[in-house]
Amino acid sequence: TDDCRFSSVFCENSKKLIDVHSFALAAKYYSLSNLGLCTPLEEILEALRGESPERNDIKTDEFMNNKKSHEVQVMSELIDSIANYCGIKQVIDIGSGKGYLSSFLSMHYNLKVYGIDSSNTNTHGAHERNKKLKKHWRAYQSRARANLKSQKSEEVNDRPVQTEIKCEANTNEKPLNNNSSLQSQDQVTTQDLVPSGVFTEIATSETSKQTEINLVTQTHSDESKLSENVLAILDVLPADAVEVFSSSRCDCGELCEEEKAQRKMASIKAKASKSSESNLYFPLTSYITAETELSDIITDLEGSVMVGLHTCGDLAPNTLRIFIAKPEIKAVCSVGCCYHLLSEQYENQEVTPIIFFHFADCTEEVWGFPMCQYLKDEGWCCGRNARMSACLALERVAVGQMLPTESLFYRAVLQVIIEEIYGVTKSDRHVGKIFSKSSSFLDYVRKSLKKLELDDSKLPDSCIMDYYEKYKHRMNELEAFNMLKVVLAPCIEVLILLDRLCYLKEQDNIAWSGLVKLFDPVKSPRCYAVIALKKQSCF
């Protein structure tokens, strides 16, 4: 059994770690990658879109950093595939921040996106970012038109050769009747394109319509396709992010004024009828809980995909609860983060680090962990220290991105000082990122005490440095301890993610749910998405 296999890891009497190698093997054994519980991203994309082409022609690294660009491109492709499969055009981005994902879904995939964030600052940042994107897309449009002109010239020069080659290649082919070809295309359905057994009981009528549109589009010439793709840039931005250019100039001032009035009226009509528009992005400010009534925030709420890219703490489980409760939400794609901020139903303030406990039942409330009934019945608890460990990035450490040992050491000694000098064992205040702003350990302690609103005048410099000297020889121990936490991190993350997946499996209205590894864990350590689609009867 597993208990026998790993019984030698800890001393039976002292409970201390005695076999580091066995400990590491046990942690690897219970990691999500080793358990084989994830659905490959390529498999789910193939099942969702069938033979529909990929849309990865626009690169986001021009206006996002490398990490964010990687996350947005991968996740947006999946979200678009889910939306097309379900036949819906509305996306609700929970915890949207400054709108990186929301704006790209709207611009590139022609989706109507509501980005909801609790911070007014983030919402304002999303608006400002759209202004910057306006300049980027204008420049991209100019480059694209230049490329189109260049490509057209090359096509004209190459056309006779291509025609000759094509004729030679077709000499042994049978003539193809256009009508019969179109007839056979019409007979292709979504059921033919999507592998059976991957998803069940999901609406496909809208997807079939989209498939037919795609098949008709394929009859257009390559030149027309290219032209449409370039000129469509004007259509993929929000209404207030692009200037409308006329193909001809007005010859008189009166006509220009008339054209301005027409444009203004068209803009007003577009905003008034936004419920029927798709390629729009609306940043909204609202604090989301499990009880949030979305229709109070989104007046034209309709069939939607609910998404979240690194939703913090309880926001990730609450996203799943809203998905289950609201019939308008047809699918969900949630990537959580900040496990240390999760609320726990059975948490005990005196728990030992990295150990899971069972406690007696308590009052039923909405908690971040556990979600599924099985862990609730068992009374499972992680504790803050374990959840903090779950946030660590094993893959980054494995490629040489070591832990910030010195800053961790500063923080550990600071806690000893606070407890022994000030008698404080618990506080709602946080030190934050003071280490990077400090010139020395002494400076770090002084700034930290001020931020914690503790009187530092009672603590002379010599006393602070005495604490530093007392513990500096144990820095290697601290580094070793934190490395053990890093090794164990994937196991704790597994518990949290499987709890969320089991919660979805317990629901009656879910057609399919699973875990998908979306991102490169070195670029983005919180790389797993919880995905679910509702049954057709729920559409």
Write the layout of secondary structure elements.
Elements: H1 2-5, H2 20-29, H3 32-35, H4 41-49, H5 66-86, E1 90-94, H6 100-109, E2 112-117, H7 120-169, H8 178-186, H9 190-193, H10 205-217, H11 222-231, H12 253-272, E3 281-285, H13 294-297, E4 304-312, H14 315-325, E5 329-337, E6 357-358, H15 373-378, E7 380-381, H16 384-390, H17 394-398, H18 405-422, H19 441-451, H20 461-471, H21 475-505, E8 510-517, E9 528-534
Parallel strand pairs: 1-2, 1-4, 2-3, 4-5
Antiparallel strand pairs: 5-9, 6-7, 8-9
Overview of this protein structure:
It holds the Pfam family Methyltransf_32. This is MET25 protein. InterPro entries: Methyltranfer_dom, METTL25, SAM-dependent_MTases_sf. Helix 7 packs antiparallel against helix 11 and helix 18 packs across helix 21. The protein has 21 helices and nine strands. The two termini are 45 Å apart. About 23% of the residues have low confidence. The strands form two sheets. Strands 3-2-1-4-5-9-8 form a seven-stranded mixed sheet, with helices on both faces. Strands 6-7 form a two-stranded antiparallel sheet. It is an alpha/beta fold and 539 residues long.
